[in-house]
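[Q] Does anyone have a clean structure-token version of this?
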Amino acid sequence: MRSIQLLFLFTTLSFFTSCVSTKSTLKNVDNSQIKPILSSNHFIITEMATDMKYGYDKDYPINIGFDNEKYGSNNIVYFFNALRGASGEYFTFKKIDNCCPFPSTRSKMGAGTLEIYEITFEKSKNTVQLYFNIFDKGKIMCPKGFSIKSF
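[A] Here you go.
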């Protein structure tokens, strides 16, 4: 019985510790960044990303962890509310998955995962996916393929 308990404990510990890398692959975390100004239900975004990887690559997510992690989805909505498609078109978005565990000192668990959102542009069947990090901070910019909404 004792050996079964030890085997179960070892298996459980191996599973949980193997899910998170000890070194982050995220390239654009900057926890010195300040939260964008919030106006009504959107962030004020003033800068266009120059790097095509911004948001589209799991190593260059949109780092939106300015508040406690429980508010991460609110920040994602504020982010999307500030944008339109490249030609000003509307779009819809939905969370489709989590992926890519990484260590984070800003998480209660000591690790985080990226959230993946699928964006569908009005009058188009084309979709894109953006990666979000709700645990760490970074410079908030408008990704390539989008435009900043005029208010």
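[Q] Thanks! Anything notable?
[A] The radius of gyration is 18 Å.
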